[in-house]
């Protein structure tokens, strides 16, 4: 019986669509970056709560949440590896039109056959599996660059850094549509925090960057809180943020961070009763968000 060359493609397409839909409809995936941008703006000390500041903040959230968010969702949720692996052994597809007087076996003849195979693979394998994601990436990339240019050079450079980080995350995970929570956290908390600070202040301090990374570690560790080292990392990162605030003579804010750790520790004890990790994320991250704003306000 002849093998159905489209069977694995159909399976990959349905998996990719399911992952895209799950990430695009998750409120926490959209709320986290917007909140981190607000915290970064508060850290800058230049956010005056005026109408023009809110308009600027809204434009920045569009870049970070819609632009970066859609790019990372499409890149990180799509299985690129499966269709690319099919290309290695792909021999289907007739040659494209050859230039006149092309001799058999000549470079022009080989190029014609190779382009025909490439077109067949693109049409039958790659586009059905990854076409929606690729379209989303192109549209989001264009919109992101335009909005970033309007915000200034600093945001454009940070956008380039975000794209580089997305590619690293994609390569690290093998391009199979299963991005690790740590990569999500860097792109959902750390970089948006830096974007809010840089856009409003025009510069970046080591303290602001340190707090952004610390809360990104806590944010990403929430999904793995059933593992001991992930719990240590998540709580330890927030303790480190509190110690840092003490060093900056913000003892009151550090005390608030310690108090906000109490409900998170209580929620950790419930994980022993086998609730899913999503349950802990749902109830622990609001406390982290409050801690982020308290820390940002204290700098």
Structural description of this entry:
This protein is an all-alpha fold and 299 residues long. The chain has 2 domains: 1-95 and 125-203, no CATH class; 205-299. It has helices at residues 7-24, 27-44, 51-76, 81-88, 107-151, 153-172, 181-201, 206-221, 228-247, 251-270, 277-298.
Quick tags:
single chain; 299 residues; mainly alpha; 2 domains; elongated; disordered N terminus
What's the gist of this structure?
The chain contains eleven helices and no strands.
Number of DSSP helices?
11
- For the terminal residues, how far apart are their CA atoms? 69 Å
Cα radius of gyration in angstroms: 23 Å
Pairing-aware structural class of the strands and helices?
Answer: mainly alpha
Strand content: under 5%
Would you identify the regions where 5 or more consecutive residues have pLDDT less than 50?
A: 1-7
Topology (SSEs and partners):
Blueprint (H helix, E strand, L loop, with lengths): L6 H18 L2 H18 L6 H26 L4 H8 L18 H45 L1 H20 L8 H21 L4 H16 L6 H20 L3 H20 L6 H22 L1
Helix pairs in contact: 1-5, 2-3, 2-7, 2-11, 3-5, 3-6, 3-7, 4-5, 5-6, 6-7, 7-8, 8-9, 8-11, 9-10, 10-11
């Amino acid at each position: 019986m002849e093998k159905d060359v489209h069977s694995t493609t159909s399976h990959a397409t349905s998996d990719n669509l399911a992952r895209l839909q799950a990430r695009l409809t998750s409120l926490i995936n959209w709320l986290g970056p917007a909140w981190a941008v607000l915290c970064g703006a508060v850290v800058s000390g230049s956010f005056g709560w005026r109408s023009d500041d809110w308009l600027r903040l809204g434009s920045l959230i569009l870049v970070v949440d819609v632009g970066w968010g859609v790019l990372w969702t499409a890149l990180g949720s799509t299985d690129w590896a499966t269709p690319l692996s099919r290309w290695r052994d792909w021999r289907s597809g007739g040659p494209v039109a050859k230039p006149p007087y092309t001799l058999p076996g000549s470079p022009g003849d080989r190029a014609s056959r190779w382009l025909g195979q490439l077109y067949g693979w693109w049409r039958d394998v790659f586009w059905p599996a990854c076409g929606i994601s690729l379209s989303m990436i192109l549209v989001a990339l264009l919109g992101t660059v335009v909005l970033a240019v309007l915000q200034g050079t600093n945001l454009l450079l940070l956008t380039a850094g975000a794209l580089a980080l997305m590619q690293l995350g994609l390569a690290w995970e093998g391009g199979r549509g299963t991005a690790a929570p740590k990569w999500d956290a860097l792109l959902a908390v750390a970089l948006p925090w830096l974007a809010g600070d840089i856009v409003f202040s025009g510069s970046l301090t080591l303290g602001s960057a340190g707090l952004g990374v610390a809360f990104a570690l806590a944010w990403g560790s929430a999904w793995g809180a059933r593992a001991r080292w992930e719990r240590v990392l998540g709580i330890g990162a927030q303790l480190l943020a509190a110690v840092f605030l003490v060093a900056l003579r913000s003892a009151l804010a550090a005390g608030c961070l310690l108090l906000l750790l109490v409900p998170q520790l209580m929620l950790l004890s419930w994980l022993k009763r086998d609730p899913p990790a999503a349950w802990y994320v749902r109830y622990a991250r609001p406390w982290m968000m409050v801690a982020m704003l308290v820390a940002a306000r204290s700098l």
